[in-house]
Amino acid sequence: MKLFVLNGPNLNMLGIREPGIYGKQDFNALIAYIHEVCQREGIEVECFQSNHEGVLVDIIQSAYGKADGIVINPAAYTHTSVAILDALKAVALPAVEVHLSDIKERESFRHISYPAMACIAQVKGKGFYGYEEAILLLKEHLSK
Ligand code: CA2
Question: Whose alpha carbon is nearest atom 5 of ligand 1?
Fold first, then answer.
């Protein structure tokens, strides 16, 4: 089983500012955590981060034929990107959307998610653990 884990704009700045919302740990710690979880679960994983919508679309397209599922934190593109929604629909791979913070408890513009419309689940407000939950949800989904 192989998963792609995608992180959107500014998530590479984790740990640098806004620790009250996103935690104190940095982006490298997040990637190390994802690798640890996947190794423990016997899952192959490739992690990506981009600040560019089109690059995220390219990565989603490249998952077709290479990955069995996608974990995605589209960051700010969550609330605007029909292109990411369409790319997820196009590859038709099971996907889970993750957010470190609880977007439903924040500003109203963060309540809408376009990519979630093509995802089997959305995990929010659980910090790094949300990525683990997303990986486990996909593992269970794919083993059915
Ligand atoms: O809670 C999440 O994971 C978000 O996807 C994070 C996005 C935000 O736009 C979404 O509404 C919710 C923002 C990621 C930016 O990360 C930062 C990291 C350090 C300093 C400032 C922002």
Answer: 75
What is the model's pTM? 0.97
Q: Right CATH number for 2-143 from 3.40.30.10, 2.40.420.20, 3.40.50.9100, 2.60.40.1920?
A: 3.40.50.9100
Does residue 141 have an active-site annotation?
no
Q: Compute mean pLDDT per 10 residues along the chain, 144 residues long, and list them.
A: 98 90 95 98 98 99 98 98 99 98 98 98 98 98 96
Catalogue the E-assigned strands of 9-55. Answer: 44-49
Active site residue 64: no
Cβ-based neighbour number of residue 37 at 10 Å: 21
Q: Where are the domains of the chain?
A: 2-143
Query: Could you give the CA distance from residue 11 to residue 48 in angstroms, rounded to a whole number?
Result: 11
